Amino acid sequence: MSVAASARPVSPAAGSGAGPLLRAWRERRRLSQLELALRAGSSARHLSFIETGRSRPSEELLLRLAERLQVPVRERNALLLAAGYAPRYPETPLDDPALDGLRDGLERLLRGYEPYPALVVDAGYTVVAANRGIEMLLAGVPEKLLSPAPNAMRLTLHPEGLAPRIRNLRQWRGHLLAQMERDIALHRSDRLRALYEEVAGYPVPPKEPGAEPEEPVPYFALPLRVEHAGRILSFISSISTFNTPMDITVAELAVETLLPADRATAEHLRALAG
Known about the structure:
By secondary structure, this protein is α+β, with helices and mostly antiparallel strands. 45% of the residues lie in helices and 11% in strands. Strands 2-1-5-4-3 form a five-stranded antiparallel β-sheet.
């Protein structure tokens, strides 16, 4: 799969003015006004005035507060607009020529990770790029799940996707749903909420008598254990994002790599590639 463009929704503002938005983010981070003010080089009194609408923050202070609160780039634009300032961060389509270097770098990264699986997803888990390791794992998945814009959560949890092949499905499903819950709390996206409700509603096969127990396994992290060509392959997932992004599209991309969790998995993938 090659890097492709995807549409993104604009998050709705929670309340009017920058004050309520700042207060909501501060409470979400469980910081007092004094703690946040000290981190941002301001005063608790001034921050109180901002949150209650009695004072308008400067653009510089607003961005500094957003940085200390780890507000996503998309939501920083919402803060700026609420305070009467122009948005600071563009949202460049992924197929724009301005991002040619980014796309080329991602393609090289994914190819370089082969034969191990790796993919790139956006904030809605739409797959925008993947390498041959991912295509190997998805062999046999129906075309309706692979096009026009495959979604990583659907591909993994749909009963016609990878789910029947995942040997520790209940554990892995719980991990993915918890990850989505954290993302929903962070991004406040209606599209992400709808996706969560969809995949959480997929049926989970009952445990069969004599099935392999889903108990703690001797790995340093929870593995994805998936059946492929009569073998059980074990992977540890690692997710990377871009540091200090200045564009919404770039900020919402994530590179997920599947590291072989044991020697047998690594040897099998190398043999397939060879």
